């Protein structure tokens, strides 16, 4: 929800002042400290990856050189003098070519991570959906029949409130703690003559990925992955200059936590952007009796 404020338009004459105002917030001070600590770990990880890739490159070069040294002379002799085709040597040279092609066309680390993430999330979606489809057959769990429609309705109201930077209109869709947190965030990021614009909104995905099911109470929790496309940016209303975000369509991925409040009521109780916190342990199926 607040990811765009990490993308200031550095060319804007207003941004330095606004960023300074944000930095004056004690809460943001600790957020920046955590971000700096995380960035330090990221730099250490990147250094380790760099040396690992250098080692892999050296090993690959040595392997290719060795394979060609073992195979090429026989192929050259066969080409010059004829005779029986050196299958073993051709195999070694072919293997070196395959290694080169794989090294050139190998998938980027980011793509690999995305593939692993998507595969893992797809499994969790499938298992969670199957579990929900099973338990909602019980009349006691009739609230699950309304869960998806509640999530989509809540999403619509939250985005509308986000653009207004005021969540009063969707207070009934949220827990008290979540409402207070989002309202405080709005106050933190609200400045005079500054407006937030959300355009070309498209909800791509709203799927459950984790659940805590209580058999004898109304304290069930369901985590949803929310994926949507939108133009999300902040402008100076006096001249229309973009201060934060981008007027290009981007994809946003967030995790929304819904808590059962009453028999047939679900309330939004937390919103976490992808990568903001490690909540993988929440993406499981848990039954409590």
Automatic annotation (TrEMBL):
Record's keyword terms, sorted: Membrane, Transmembrane, Transmembrane helix
Record-annotated Tim44-like domain positions: 128-273
Record-annotated membrane-spanning stretches: 45-65, 85-105
Keyword Transmembrane helix: yes
Gene3D superfamilies named in the record: 3.10.450.240
Protein name: Tim44-like domain protein
Organism: Clostridium beijerinckii
